Each structure stands twice: as structure tokens, then as C-alpha cells.
Structure to design on (332 residues):
């Protein structure tokens, strides 16, 4: 005969810390019948037996026929099993969710299929959008063809090959387009109307200004050793003054500065001073350089610059550049 013991000292209601039963243990045999009033702890004792002995025995607790019998309304039948009622409840919940899914599917399907009564839904809106898109595509295509034809016949100079120009070329060039102001539009129209211009070539040798600068610096840094020393000519201003006096006076005349008669010795002394070979060579070099610079300047002054030979859209820039040149020449 199989017996087992249940520890009663650890069994208690959830809302109290006191043991539910007064005894310390309960001995169970292979068959046991437990009777008690409602609320006295039969279910609590059954749960305690399950918790304490499920590892050693196959414990099954009977808590009424509701958990053993599950009714299936669809099959018009019932099943007898442990937790059958709970399973049937789960089945009913799942069936309800399934019906909701089916209902949602039906509603969604009605929105995306062609309506029979002509009502508006997602399908009809999609079809309307497709038709509107096709209509706009047709308008654009018509615009491309017309624009390409207009350029080809009216303004062939705008394209490289007007004979092969078509709507596809026009579409590719749209990305290169930019918004123009009215003034720019008028200028470009004038360019289209203007005839091909041949700008006259200005024949002018390239001026090496570095060469002139180097020559001037070389002259400035040159030193001339005079053959005759005149002590009273001890600075450049006096030398220049004496040179000018020699140029404007003749022998026997009275000096315009001091009022004394210029002696032959003084005249000969100055002529000898300023006629030295080194001085003459430097003076000739300076004179020649000045003539060359003046010659170049005269050529520049003789240049006639005009904006008339430029296309309409370039006249403004050309005029500005010509004005800058005139200002620069005026500041010489």
C-alpha cells in the first residue's frame, strides 16, 4: 500500500501568514476522500498536493466539469479532457481574431478592386491618377516636339546640327537652362538677329616693359667720370644749371643769372666739361630711350578702340574695358 505525506505547516491562505491547518502533516494513501465546507481550504490543499508531489506522482486535480468538457459550436459536439474548457475559450478567441482579419481583408480588398457601382475607392483614384499622368505626359511630349521644331526652323543657329535636332535633344538641354531677366532676353534676341561679325585685327607688336624698366634702372645707376673737374659744380642741381646756361648763352654774352660777362675761359671750361665722351654717350642713350618710349606711347595713343564691332551681349563689357583704358591713358 502506497502512502505519502503532505506538509501542512507551510500551507496558508494568500492574505495571512498563519498556517491554514492545525496539524503538521497529512498522510495520504492510494485512495482518499476529503470533505469540507465551502471556503475551508479544499482547493488550497489540492494546490499544495500538486506543488509538493508533482515531481513524484502524476497528480491530476478535479475542479468541476467546466474544465473537463469543452463545447465546440461549429462541430455541434463536446470533448472530455483536462483543461478542455480553457482550450475551447482560446479557440473562440482565435476564431474571433480570424473573423476580424477576414473582415479587414474584405474591406481592404474592396478598396483596391474595381468597384461595381461606380463608387470611388483606392482603385478608382489610382486609375484617375494614371489617366491624369498620361495626359500630362502627352502634353509634355507635344511641348517637346513643338519646341524642337520651332528651334529647328526658326533659330537653327542655336544648335550644332539643326537637321537632326529633335525632342530628345531638347529634353536633354532643359537641365542646362537658366532663368533670364528681361534685359538678358532682349540682348540675346539681338544676338540672334545680328549678322556674323569679322573683328579687324590690330597689328601691334608685343611691348616688353621689363626691358624698358631694366634699361632705365641701368641708366640711373650709371656713373660717368668727367675728364675736367670743376670744383664749383659740386652737386647735380648746379651741374644741370650750368648745362642749361651753356645751352642758352654764347661767348661774350652777359650771364642771365649773375649779370656778368661770360669769359671765353669759362665758356671753354664748360664746353670741355659737358663734351666728355662718357657724358655724351650717356646723354645719347637717354635721348634714344626717351624717343623709343615716346614712339611706343604714340602708337598706343593712335589705337582707335570701339565697341561697335562686338555682338550686342558683349558691347557692355567691351565699353567698360575701353573706358578703363582711356582713364589709364589720361593718368599718364
Amino acid at each position: 500500500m502506497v502512502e505519502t505525506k503532505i506538509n501542512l505547516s507551510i500551507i496558508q491562505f494568500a492574505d495571512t501568514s498563519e498556517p491554514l491547518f492545525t496539524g503538521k502533516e497529512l498522510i495520504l494513501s492510494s485512495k482518499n476522500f476529503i470533505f469540507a465546507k465551502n471556503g475551508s481550504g479544499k482547493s488550497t490543499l489540492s494546490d499544495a498536493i500538486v506543488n509538493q508531489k508533482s515531481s513524484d506522482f502524476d497528480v491530476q486535480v478535479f475542479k468541476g466539469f467546466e474544465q473537463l468538457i469543452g463545447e465546440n459550436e461549429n462541430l455541434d459536439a463536446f470533448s472530455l479532457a483536462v483543461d478542455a474548457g480553457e482550450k475551447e475559450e482560446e479557440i473562440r478567441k482565435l476564431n474571433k481574431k480570424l473573423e476580424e482579419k477576414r473582415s479587414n481583408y474584405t474591406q481592404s480588398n474592396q478598396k483596391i478592386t474595381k468597384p461595381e457601382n461606380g463608387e470611388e475607392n483606392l482603385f478608382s483614384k489610382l486609375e484617375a491618377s494614371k489617366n491624369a499622368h498620361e495626359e500630362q505626359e502627352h502634353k509634355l511630349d507635344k511641348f517637346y516636339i513643338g519646341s524642337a521644331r520651332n528651334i529647328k526652323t526658326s533659330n537653327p543657329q542655336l544648335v550644332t546640327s539643326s537637321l537632326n535636332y529633335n525632342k530628345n535633344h531638347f529634353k536633354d538641354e532643359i537641365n542646362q537652362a537658366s532663368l533670364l531677366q528681361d534685359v538678358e532676353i532682349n540682348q540675346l534676341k539681338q544676338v540672334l538677329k545680328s549678322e556674323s561679325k569679322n573683328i579687324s585685327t590690330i597689328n601691334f607688336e608685343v611691348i616688353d616693359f621689363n626691358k624698358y624698366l631694366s634699361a632705365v634702372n641701368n641708366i640711373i645707376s650709371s656713373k660717368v667720370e668727367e675728364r675736367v673737374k670743376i670744383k664749383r659744380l659740386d652737386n647735380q642741381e648746379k651741374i644741370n644749371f650750368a648745362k642749361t646756361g651753356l645751352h642758352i648763352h654764347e661767348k661774350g654774352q652777359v650771364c642771365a643769372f649773375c649779370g656778368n660777362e661770360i669769359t671765353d675761359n669759362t665758356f671753354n671750361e664748360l664746353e670741355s666739361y659737358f663734351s666728355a665722351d662718357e657724358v655724351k654717350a650717356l646723354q645719347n642713350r637717354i635721348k634714344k630711350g626717351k624717343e623709343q618710349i615716346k614712339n611706343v606711347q604714340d602708337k598706343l595713343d593712335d589705337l582707335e578702340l570701339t565697341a561697335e564691332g562686338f555682338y550686342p551681349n558683349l558691347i557692355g563689357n567691351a565699353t567698360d574695358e575701353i573706358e578703363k583704358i582711356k582713364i589709364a591713358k589720361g593718368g599718364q
Summary: The longest strand covers residues 4-7.
